What we know:
By secondary structure, the protein is mainly alpha-helical. The protein has 5 helices and no strands.
Amino acid sequence: MALTELIKKTCKSLGENNKPTYVVMAIAAVKGICRPMFTMMDKTENPETKKYTALREGLTEVIAIPAYWACGEIAGKFAKKTFSSDAALAGRAEKNLMFIGVCTAALFVIPALCSAAIKPIMDKMGLKAPKSHDKDVKQPDTPTVMPPVQLNSQTAKLNTYPRMSTFTSRPQIGLRVGGL
């Protein structure tokens, strides 16, 4: 009976005193352990690539955990100061602003810190991004330009590119991403 009571007390305490910052930090800690471990277990990848990728993933989470904590706590302190007159509102505002602080960390702070810190850390450790060893990968062919076709004037006015079945206002060669 003592074990079930302990579990009930723990779950009740976590449910009542849970902060968004704690949840996200727990997720980042698990990711910081599991992602590098799964990367290193990949038998099909080059050993140097595995080592570099696993270390980079681990460093990202090492940077993320304190960033989540700091941004969440700063936002929570701001809510406490701003809504100190109404205790019920202050509690909800603190949790909501902590959540916004954690989201801000994920969207802006962590990517900025990782961009600034990971490359110098990896360089000091003597690890460089491995070059691709895929020699079997075929390079894409360059598009060939078709010779002009003699058409009557009516067809030429309607379709700038006669080998295409529809009218278009721009060339249809090269890589196009999105849009029409």
